[in-house]
Amino acid sequence: MTARIDHTRPFIPVRIAVLTVSDTRTPKTDKSGPLLAQMIEEAGHTLAGRAVAPDDEKSIRKAVKKWVKAKDIDVVITTGGTGFTGRDVTPEAIRPIFDKEIDGFSVLFHMLSYQTVGTSTIQSRACGGLAKGTLIFCVPGSPGACEDAWRGILKFQLDNRHRPCSFVELMPRLTESKKKKAEQETPR
User: Fold this and answer.
1) E runs forming strands in the chain
2) Edge-to-edge strand order for the sheet containing 134-139?
């Protein structure tokens, strides 16, 4: 199925932060973070933050939690640390903060990635989830994988004009169970 964009609807920009996870990359040598930032801005969204964190669970989790708490960030995309080496710990760092996992993101990422890298896609542990109303997507650190994730999935799911539906339409409702629970706990 080809994604359909309804151009009669006004575009709603989303505020997105990008975290590069790497022990070997710096802001100057990172290629994936700048590529994601470029694609985000070309799509009309706001780059709300950008950082590099080492391959360390605490550092990764701290950076993402800071952005999850920020009121001016809707989505966090991490790049790197999703492989199988001893240093690859991004899923371990991020999954514990998910309120819900977006299983379909990983499935669709692997379907797209297979078309590019064949069976090597099984070496990726790309994942996505929701934490306190913030969407989080963890993609591999290669520019090609970032491009697959953005152009094949995120570009559409973060565009409110995408039919039949997108994450943007759900954003106002992502925390409604927490609001309902808080209302029930508030004495009258």
Assistant:
1) 4-5, 15-21, 46-53, 75-79, 100-101, 127-131, 134-139, 162-163
2) 46-53, 15-21, 75-79, 134-139, 127-131, 100-101
* Residue 133, amino acid: G
Is 183 a residue whose pLDDT tops 70? no
pLDDT for res 187: 63
What mean pLDDT comes out for the span 59-85? 97
Tokens 């505020």 label which residue?
Answer: 15
Both tokens of 129, joined, read 């989830």
Distance CA 121, CA 108 (A): 11
Q: Are strands 4-5 and 75-79 parallel, antiparallel or unpaired?
A: unpaired
Percentage of the chain exceeding pLDDT 70: 92
- Dihedral pair phi/psi, residue 128, rounded to 5°: -145, 155
Tokens 């890298």, located at residue? 117
Cβ atoms of 140 and 124 closer than 8 Å: yes
DSSP lists the bridge partners of residue 21 as 53
- Report the distance separating Cα 121 and Cα 55, nearest Å: 21
